[in-house]
Specification:
It comes from Catenulispora yoronensis. This is ABC transporter ATP-binding protein. GO terms for molecular function: ATP binding. Keywords: ATP-binding, Cell membrane, Membrane, Nucleotide-binding, Translocase, Transport. Helix 2 packs parallel to helix 4 and helix 3 crosses helix 4. This protein is α+β, with helices and mostly antiparallel strands. Helices cover 24% and strands 34% of the residues. Strand 17 and strand 18 form a beta hairpin. The mean pLDDT is 92. The strands form four sheets. Strands 6-7-8-3-9-10 form a six-stranded mixed beta sheet, sandwiched between helices. The protein has two domains: 235 residues, Rossmann fold; 108 residues, Beta Barrel (OB fold (Dihydrolipoamide Acetyltransferase, E2P)). Bound molecules: adenosine-5'-diphosphate and magnesium ion. The site of adenosine-5'-diphosphate has 11 residues, from strand 2 and helix 1.
C-alpha cells in the first residue's frame, strides 16, 4: 500500500529534431489505494509515465516518490511495483505456474512460499478449480486464450503482493465482450486488494468505468484531473470535452449576443452560471453533449433549428445529425422518435448541461 507522487517529472527522448518531450514537468499525487486512470490519445506520454514510475525508464528531470521513499534512482525490482503490459509479456517457454512465480523467484522467496502465493493468486484470478481451467497451470502461454493470458499476467502481478499496480492498456487485446467482463473483474479485484493502481488507457469509457480519478493527458501534460463525473460533466477545455463521451460533444463556434450565444443563425441560451460573466460580442465555443437535447418538429425558442441529415441507430437510442444553416449538430434521441432524413427539427440543449469555452 503506498501513495505515488511525481515532482516536476520530465522525460525527453532525443530525436532528429532535437528531442521529444514525452513528459513535461508532471506533478501528480495519487493517494494510497486509489484506482487512477491515465487517459489520452496515442503518443501523449502514458506509457512513458508508467515506465518511469516502474523504473524501466530514467527521467530526464524531476523525481518519483512511492510511499515515503524517493525512488527516482531505485531499480525496478526494489520499488514494490508490479506492471501488466498490453501484450502481457509472459515468458513463452515457462509454464503458467512458473510465469506467476517469476517475480517471487527473482526475489529469492522460498519454494513452498512461492507455491502458496501462486495458488492463491491463480485461484483469485479464476485460473483454478473449474473443469475448463483444469491443467491450466501446467500449460505454456501459447496454449491459452487471450483472456486466460491476461489473467495469468494479472495473477503474476498480484502474487508479488506489490504496493502499486501499473497497468498499460491491459484490456486492449481482448475482444469487445471479454473486455467488458475483464473490466468488471479488474474493478472488483482492485477493490478487494485496495492496491494503489495506475491504469493507462486510450479508451475514455474504460477510464470512466474503472477509475476513482482520471488524468487526461495531451503532449506530455495533464489537461484535466478529476473524478469521472467531473471530467464528464465539466471538461476543463475543448480537448478534454472532445475526448470524453461515447458520442463526441458538439463544440460550436459562436458569438455572445443579448444573453445568448449566436451559433449558425440559432440563438442558444448562455449556459447556467455564465450569464453576466462573458462580454457581449465575445467569440466563444459552446459545448453541448448530444445526450442532453430535447427535440421537436415544431419551432422552439432557444433551440437549434435545422433539418435531419443523418439518423444512426445506437440500439436503445438514435443519433441524429442535424444540418443547422450548414453547421452539423448532433443529438441523441429516444428510439421512439422517428425523425426522417430531410425533416425539419428543433433541438433544444439543456441549459444546465451546456458549457462555454474561450479556448476554441
Ligand atoms: P502513449 O503511451 O501515450 O501512446 P508514449 O509514452 O509511448 O505514448 O510516447 C510518448 C512520446 O514519446 C511519443 O512521441 C513517442 O514517439 C516518444 N517515445 C516513446 N518512447 C520512445 C523511445 N524509446 N525513443 C524515442 N521516442 C520515444
Ligand atoms: Mg502506450
Amino acid at each position: 500500500m503506498a501513495q505515488i507522487k511525481t515532482v516536476d517529472l520530465t522525460k525527453t527522448f532525443p530525436d532528429a529534431a532535437g528531442g521529444v518531450t514525452a513528459l513535461d514537468r508532471l506533478n501528480l499525487t495519487i493517494p494510497d489505494g486509489e484506482f487512477f486512470a491515465l487517459l489520452g490519445p496515442s503518443g501523449c506520454g502514458k506509457t512513458t509515465l508508467l515506465r518511469t514510475l516502474a523504473g524501466l525508464e530514467a527521467p530526464t528531470g524531476g523525481a518519483v516518490h512511492i510511499g515515503e521513499a524517493d525512488v527516482t534512482n531505485t531499480p525496478p525490482g526494489k520499488r514494490g511495483v508490479a506492471m501488466v503490459f498490453q501484450d502481457y509479456a509472459l515468458f513463452p517457454h515457462m509454464t503458467v505456474t512458473d510465469n506467476i512465480a517469476y517475480p517471487l523467484r527473482v526475489r529469492g522467496v522460498p519454494k513452498p512460499r512461492q507455491r502458496e502465493a501462486v495458488l492463491a493468486a491463480a485461484s483469485e484470478l479464476g485460473l483454478t478449480g473449474t473443469a475448463s481451467t483444469a491443467g491450466l497451470l501446467d500449460r505454456r502461454p501459447g496454449a491459452l486464450s487471450g483472456g486466460q493470458q491476461q489473467r495469468v499476467a494479472l495473477a503474476r502481478a498480484t502474487a508479488a503482493n506489490p504496493s502499486v499496480f501499473l497497468f498499460d492498456e491491459p484490456l486492449s487485446n481482448l475482444d469487445a465482450r471479454l473486455r467488458l467482463e475483464a473490466r468488471t473483474f479488474l474493478k472488483r479485484l482492485q477493490r478487494e486488494l485496495a492496491t494503489t493502481t495506475v491504469f493507462v488507457t486510450h479508451d475514455q469509457a474504460e477510464a470512466l468505468a474503472l477509475a476513482d480519478r482520471i488524468a487526461v493527458m495531451q503532449s506530455g501534460r495533464i489537461r484535466q484531473l478529476g473524478t469521472p463525473r467531473e471530467v464528464y460533466r465539466r471538461p476543463a477545455n475543448t480537448f478534454v470535452a472532445s475526448f470524453i463521451g461515447s458520442t463526441p460533444m458538439n463544440l460550436l463556434e459562436g458569438i455572445v449576443r443579448d444573453g445568448c450565444v449566436l451559433v449558425a443563425d440559432s440563438e442558444i441560451a448562455l449556459p447556467d452560471g455564465t450569464v453576466g460573466r462573458v462580454a457581449e460580442g465575445a467569440e466563444v465555443v459552446l459545448g453541448a453533449r448530444p445526450e442532453y437535447f430535447r427535440v421537436s418538429p415544431d419551432p422552439v425558442a432557444g433551440a437549434f433549428g435545422g433539418t435531419v441529415a443523418v439518423v444512426e441507430n445506437l440500439g436503445s437510442s438514435l443519433l441524429l445529425t442535424l444540418d443547422v444553416a450548414g453547421t452539423a449538430v448532433q443529438a441523441v434521441v429516444s428510439e421512439e422518435e422517428e425523425p426522417e432524413p430531410g425533416a425539419a427539427l428543433w433541438a433544444l440543449p439543456r441549459q444546465d448541461r451546456t458549457l462555454l469555452y474561450a479556448d476554441g
